[in-house]
What we know:
The chain has about 240 residues and is an alpha+beta fold. The chain contains 10 helices and 8 strands. Strands 5-4-8-7-6 form a 5-stranded antiparallel beta sheet, sandwiched between helices. Helix 2 crosses helix 3 and helix 5 packs antiparallel against helix 10. InterPro entries: GAF-like_dom_sf (IPR029016), HTH_MetabolicPath_Reg (IPR050707), Tscrpt_reg_IclR_C (IPR014757), Tscrpt_reg_IclR_N (IPR005471), WH-like_DNA-bd_sf (IPR036388), WH_DNA-bd_sf (IPR036390).
Amino acid sequence: MSSLGRMLGVLDLFDDTHLTRTADDISAALDVSLPTGYRYVRLLLEAGLLQRVEDSHYALGPRIILLDHYIRKADPVLREGIPVMRELVAATGFDCVASGLFGMQVLDTHREMGGAPPALAYGRGRPRPLFQGGAPKVLLATFAPAQLRKVFDARHDELVHSGLPAEWSEFRRYYAAIRKAGHYVSIGELEPQLAAVAAPILKADGGAWGAISLVFDTSRLSIVDLDKMVHLITEGASRIGGRLA
């Protein structure tokens, strides 16, 4: 990896369990000398990508907030999708969430809140489990068999732990059924008190721009018309996909 690549790798060292790092931590994690680690920290501080917090600890910097603002404005899915998401919220009273697949990370990118928004453990920027919940499943269901096989091989222990089939043939059939249905209903998979109806925003080549989901409390299941919810979410996803095309 180039020196620039290693320096940018510093940003990947921060997560929910490591909100701050010292220069010594960074040097050790990247397996570089202390002078090199301190140089990376200094350059990232100057760029605003890191900030000093306390006791020689560093956190991600304010420039990332600015960059996120530009990411939101440039995101074509949000530009075309937010008006449709607002219509879905108005029609159902439930939250509508947009999600995308970035590499092998599923991230929520936007949330339109309904009348009684539930507390969500995941929000914009926090990676979601790849094999649990509606959005990840409809996104993976758009993968070609060769792509899906790579996921199966690379993340086998994780998918089995999530309750998915351990054999490739059954795993493939599981996602083929979701692809054929064009939606997925998740009940308590990611958070036990929540249900979601998700659909992919399809590209012309069969891949996905992202996914949208209607999210609501499982206590509402007895009074929710799931068939209507499926129609609304799949029709909404289709409209967004049509606008993006």
